[in-house]
Amino acid sequence: MADEAVLFVYVTAASADEARRIGRALVEEGLAACVNLPAPHTAIYRWEGAVAEDTEQALIAKTTAARLDELARRVRALSSYDVPCIVALPVTAGDAEFLAWVGMQVRLPPSG
């Protein structure tokens, strides 16, 4: 079923604290099975006609296609960015037990 497809959703945040807050909310609310926060990085980008450079924090959320729209709405609500990066990458292969675990986590109601 297409809605069961596992996705890695790449999101950027203004700081490690913001990324941690967004990541925790996504997992607590059952929108992501897991969120990884790799090391902060430098982003060079064009914004409002000028080239800018800032430190950002990425987060990678594991979810399913069925939860992507809700996850994206939640990220936009929690992000300090006017236009947060929210990009879904399909997982085309992987450990069957892990992929099933992702699907189970985002189907369950949040605990607690």
Description of the molecule:
With 112 residues, the protein is an alpha+beta fold. The protein has a single domain (2-107), classed as Alpha-Beta Plaits (2-Layer Sandwich), CATH 3.30.70.120. The chain contains 3 helices and 5 strands. Strands 1, 2, 3, 4 and 5 form a 5-stranded antiparallel beta sheet that branches. Strand 3 (41-47) and strand 4 form a beta hairpin. Helix 1 (16-28) packs antiparallel against helix 2 (68-78). The protein is elongated and about 45 Å long. The N and C termini lie far apart (29 Å).
Distance between the termini: 29 Å
CATH third-level topology: Alpha-Beta Plaits
Shape: elongated
Number of domains: 1
Relative helix content = 25-40%
- Nearest-integer average pLDDT: 93
Q: What is the element string, with H for helices and E for strands?
A: EHEEEHEH
How many helices? The count is: 3
Radius of gyration: 15 Å
Number of strands: 5
- Biggest sheet overview: 5 strands, antiparallel
| Parts with pLDDT < 50 across at least 5 consecutive residues | none
What class would the helix/strand composition place it in? alpha+beta
CATH architecture: 2-Layer Sandwich
Strand content: 25-35%
Would you state the CATH class? Alpha Beta
Write the layout of secondary structure elements.
Elements: E1 6-13, H1 16-28, E2 34-36, E3 41-47, E4 50-64, H2 68-78, E5 86-90, H3 96-107
Antiparallel strand pairs: 1-4, 1-5, 2-4, 3-4
Helix pairs in contact: 1-2
